[in-house]
Automatic annotation (TrEMBL), chain A:
Subunit structure: LSm subunits form a heteromer with a doughnut shape.
Organism: Laccaria bicolor (strain S238N-H82 / ATCC MYA-4686) (Bicoloured deceiver)
Name of the protein in question: LSM complex subunit LSM5
Annotated SUPFAM superfamilies: Sm-like ribonucleoproteins (SSF50182)
Transmembrane stretches, start-end: none
A UniProt-annotated Pfam family: LSM
Classification lineage: Eukaryota, Fungi, Dikarya, Basidiomycota, Agaricomycotina
From TrEMBL, chain C:
Name this polypeptide is given: LSM complex subunit LSM3
Keyword Nucleus attached: yes
UniProt subcellular location: Nucleus
Subunit structure comment from the entry: LSm subunits form a heteromer with a doughnut shape.
SUPFAM superfamilies membership: Sm-like ribonucleoproteins (SSF50182)
Originating organism: Laccaria bicolor (strain S238N-H82 / ATCC MYA-4686)
One annotated GO molecular function: RNA binding
Keywords: mRNA processing, mRNA splicing, Nucleus, Ribonucleoprotein, RNA-binding, Spliceosome
Pfam families per record: LSM (PF01423)
One Gene Ontology term, aspect cellular component: U6 snRNP
Amino acid sequence: MASQILPLELIDRCIGSRIWVIMKSDREFTGKLLGFDDFVNMVLEDVTEYETTPQGKKTTQLAQTLLNGNNICMLIPGSVGPDEEG
Amino acid sequence: MDNSPPPPSNESPPPQPPPPQATHTGSPTDFLKGVVGKRVIVRLTSGVDYRGLLSCLDGYMNIALEQTEEHVNGVVTNRYGDAFIRGNNVLYISAAEPI
Amino acid sequence: MDLSSSGIQEPFDLIRLSLSERVFVKLRGDRELTGILHAYDGHMNLIMSDVEETILIVDTDSVPTGQGVLQVAKRKMEMLFVRGDGVILVSPPART
């Protein structure tokens, strides 16, 4: 049988490296993944938050942050985020 | 790992043994332990920010803040001595001072 | 869990200590209430009396950049049940 990797195993392998988080809304985050739980609440470090508003794009720098897993849509491991394609 | 709310009473002993390692694992639980009593920024999904001293929180991410300032688009729009924030509105909790 | 300065160990303690007091409640849909808190439950369903509701009517059409303020409507209600899922924030009176 082909070896299969569980989705959360992939995220577990991302701990310690940077990750790109895309929310269900027009909001994205990048940062170093420190940990996560069963709800995929994530602890990130050196975070950049990207917002797309009617007034244009906005970024916010954040220190250690607990991101609520409830609104997460996609995770892109090892990516630097929307600025440059990793 | 366990993100369920704490039991309502402490009459019975806790069902689970303490985690084997007390070291920093970077999990959400550890983050929250480190950040209680510190200044935090709580952003809601609506984009409104609350900056204040984190008194405590529970497994639903319900939050009690002290000395709270409400920020909308970078402008202080309200101040509260204490504030209870219902967890379903929370987008993130960010440390506003070193943990 | 650590308690910082007060006797609050979980967020609901803040609400419990506000029973029979006048509280400020922020709701979804740009609504705000002030009133006496009589009861609450784990959903944050609330029973309040002597309530004044403030509705912020944001007119985004006239101001294309958004956050166009607005018109304020107020009304009073004697006794009110608030469904918990609409609650964003509850602020008790200042503790001493």
